[in-house]
Amino acid sequence: MEARFITPFIQSVQNVFSTMLQLPMQIGEPRVKAGKNTGYDVSGIIGMSGDVVGSVVLSFPDDAAKRVVALFAGEELGTDSPDFADAIGELVNMVAGGAKANFDGAKVSISCPSVVVGSGHLIANTSDVPVIEIPCMTDCGEVAIQIAIKTNANAPTQAASASA
Amino acid sequence: MRIMLVDDSKTMRNIQKSVLTQLGYTELEEACDGQDALSKVGAFKPDLLLVDWNMPNMDGLSFVKAYRAQDKNTPIIMVTTEAEKARVIEAIKAGVNNYVVKPFTPDLLSQRIAETLSKAGIAA
To answer: Strands A141-151 and A31-32, how do they pair?
Structure first.
């Protein structure tokens, strides 16, 4: 995966957490994720299409997810509540949306988010792109962004620049 | 002042409701996507709409185009994660009056609502 995609996600997740949750975030060293097990309990997943394709996952341990959702939604919610999934989905939506705005003019659409709840769940990526995981720490606990995206060589914009 | 909130995220609608309630606006209607909003605007007759972009069934841009075919004046603020300049221009061309990028602070949302109502000549 191109390194230029990483910084926008770091800036975006910090912006989302500080603006919507007043929650400062320390960013760890990005690393290539080995294996498919997220090691987390709650994940918000969003797809990207257009000039850049792939997926972005925002993952939390159970306790951290509950604390973050309580801050965001203004009430404590169980993981089985539809509102819990809604809040996680909106967070990953804002993180992905904020990041794609800084992809150097690439035209990218994002999907409606999906949320997975379950200890030790697997997220399988169909693409051949390595998953970059960015560990983050907040006062609510650990958060991780997993990014598996690449430039879409077949996108109309990319094809036009290649032939120009 | 009747305000319609169009967003598929209940959490986001609740945040917007909280800001609007603190500003003294209490006549609020919610819609979870563009189709839902189109089915409610006739009865609710909003004075202002806050509209998300990415929603299932009918997205915000399609809603704005459909709504503008029947109402050219009621101000619309797009509240969305779509931050690229090209997207903002696309929304303005479709008939959006103002734009708020998520994430936002309550102060920013309040400011954009005041600006929009003032430009539209509507007393807040």
So the answer is: unpaired
CB-based contacts of A86, cutoff 8 Å, min separation 6:
B9, B10, B11
Question: CATH code at A59?
Answer: 3.40.1550.10
| A163 domain-assigned | no
Domain containing A76 equals: 3-153
Burial class (CB in 10 A: 0-12, 13-18, 19+), B25: middle
pLDDT digits (tens, 9 = 90+) for B53-95: 999 999 999 999 999 999 999 999 999 999 999 999 999 999 9
Look at residue B123 and tell me whether its pLDDT is greater than 90: no
Q: Which residues of A touch B (CB under 8 A)?
A: 15-16, 19-20, 72-74, 82-83, 86-87, 89-90, 93-94, 96-98, 100-101, 107, 110, 112
- Report the pLDDT value the prediction gives residue B38, as an integer from 0 to 100: 98
CB-CB contact of A47 with A110 (8 Å): yes
CA B3, CA B114: separation in Å to the nearest integer?
13
> Closest to A83 (Cβ–Cβ): which among B11, B54, B101?
B11
What is the DSSP secondary structure assignment for residue B109, as one 8-state letter?
H
Residue B8 pLDDT grade (very low, low, confident, very high; cuts 50, 70, 90): very high
Q: Model-level pTM?
A: 0.92
Closest CA of chain B from A50, distance in Å: 14
Count the residues in chain B: 124
- Contact at 8 Å (CB) between A157 and A106? yes
